[in-house]
Specification:
The structure is a homodimer. Chain A is α/β, with parallel strands linked by helices. The first copy, chain A, contains ten helices and eleven strands.
Chain lengths: 324, 324
């Protein structure tokens, strides 16, 4: 398989992206990596299963997607173009998600039956990982869109997490069917009558511990939920740091429990989970977290390989043929 | 001052509510508490500054507010009636929030300029406590309603947290003015042009650590944000418990750092913060958390006293006279 990597995208590009790409190349010698970006970002020697594709422009993280058409020589455009031209089987980027999404829609096109592509995340969970979506840019959604997200999330759960008949839930402000805003109440009815294995509503507190496989929400609500949870985790970790260094004795206790704390941190760390494919476009485009370090890039390459080997796009295309 | 306490409302009623009421009576001998509920919930002797008002019906936590008119002898109805009849200066309840809100609107009426009452919470925060609203039942909001919430939250921040010129923010999926769903984008414009000291958008991760005094959101989004954060906190605490008891040595380390962990838990505990007044009705009705224990009730009585002494309702009425 051939994977195009946007080495210019991300908060820690190109250094960490290159480091991750080189380690991935060593880990999967049977696959070929195409490094897309500026020549000066390359190391002196490239491994045998890596090649370089030049792209001199850069789409900045916060740059308006309206500039895209003037940026056809950007790393994200060129990496996507390689997939379109069948010179690569997948691409991955930690750059601007909006630009990655827009480029994929423009160059690869939408899968029939998909109104708007979505971003599904494989989130940490207890007892098991789960798919949550849309964590992307769809701030205004219709019930029909949430049903499409549910179907796409189901395929993602099957392919990446090997769940046989994924249980799908909606994120709401209460478990009962009458809870929610207008969008959620209408979506509840639609999902209950659909082909999806719908198990009802989940609440914010269930995000990482609820008993479901796929959690569906609009992009605005999902952003609020995920960032509120992330904020709470960061706050507690910082409070723990303050408290555990408050005295010499505490430092000793903290030293003893440190491996336990590190394990918790690792379990909650998105770097371990890598990126997730953009859902709804005709090609594999893996969206990585903007602050991805090398480890996240390696795991994202692994995700791309899994998606390719499982014929992800065919399954997705098939799933979206269902009439509603 | 006379404070009516619904002793039948809440997950731990009547035991914990009574325990809290009796301790509050001892703490504030200069105030009078009216215990509203069933006679069998009372202790054998009542302190001198407590009296009993009988109410034999109960509104269950999940009971539809449509039943309210058949429940005029319920503890929440009777407690609110006491305020309406000027036999009490304030009431507090840990029972069904929807019933408390509906009773307040029916019996006390709305303050002019308020479309829908809201519930503001005094939330833990670092470095300082903050007001967040609406954590109530208003799942569908208009920009005009969010502006009203902002004005009411400002008064709450001034009265309970002594902030002079509270800085008001909107909860959105990004800091920039163009971020948000339709509601938030329209509200951004409205707040920016209003009398409110509007400082822009905050994200979910800023809930407890952002630099603002009042954070405004619709009830649906607020529920998702708060419960996602609470869920993350509960998850980490449970992971810590597992990890810190994984071996004898770890247990020793955990024993040493335990006071630090307890301090963090207390800082994040809503029991410390007590209830908050229902915003927008003509009377002081303090909404307590459903799972309030005695400590939360004592703190809520304290909040009621602060509100009465600060002429909260007059300030609120004045604040809502502003033309928009």
């Amino acid at each position: 398989m051939r994977i195009a990597i946007d080495i210019m995208g991300g908060d820690h590009a190109p250094g960490e992206i290159m480091a991750g790409a080189l380690q991935a190349a060593a880990k999967w010698p049977e696959h070929h990596l195409i490094l897309v970006g500026r020549e000066e970002a390359l190391p002196v020697f490239l491994p045998a299963n890596c090649s370089f594709h030049r792209a001199d422009q850069i789409m900045a993280m916060d740059e308006s997607v309206e500039n895209l058409r003037q940026k056809k020589d950007s790393s994200i455009w060129q990496a996507t173009q390689l997939v379109k031209d069948n010179q690569a089987d997948a691409l991955l980027s930690a750059g601007s998600t909006a630009a990655q999404m827009a480029t994929a829609v423009l160059l690869l096109g939408r899968i029939p039956g998909v109104s708007r592509p979505a971003i599904g995340s494989v989130a940490p969970g207890f007892p098991a990982e789960r798919v949550i979506l849309d964590i992307g840019a769809n701030t205004e959604c219709t019930p029909q869109m949430l049903l499409q997200f549910a179907r796409m999330g189901r395929v993602l759960s099957q392919v990446l997490l090997k769940r046989e008949n994924p249980r799908v839930a909606l994120l709401s402000n209460g478990e009962e069917a009458h809870k929610g805003n207008e969008l959620i109440r209408a979506s509840y009815t639609l999902l209950a009558e659909s082909d999806v294995n719908f198990i009802g509503n989940m609440e914010g507190r269930d995000l990482f511990s609820g008993d479901f496989d796929v959690l569906v929400f609009d992009g605005f609500t999902g952003n609020i939920a995920v960032k509120s949870a992330e904020g709470a985790v960061a706050l507690i970790m910082s409070l723990i740091k303050d408290e555990f260094t408050a005295s010499f004795l505490r430092k000793l206790g903290a030293f003893i429990v440190k491996p336990g704390l590190k394990k918790i941190k690792d379990q909650l760390d998105y770097q371990e989970h890598g990126g997730a494919p953009l859902l709804g476009v005709k090609g594999i485009s893996i969206v990585c977290h903007g602050s991805s370090h090398a480890r996240a890039i390696i795991n994202s390459v692994g995700k791309a390989i899994t998606c390719m080997e499982a014929n992800f796009i065919s399954h997705l295309t098939e799933a979206m043929k269902v009439k509603t």
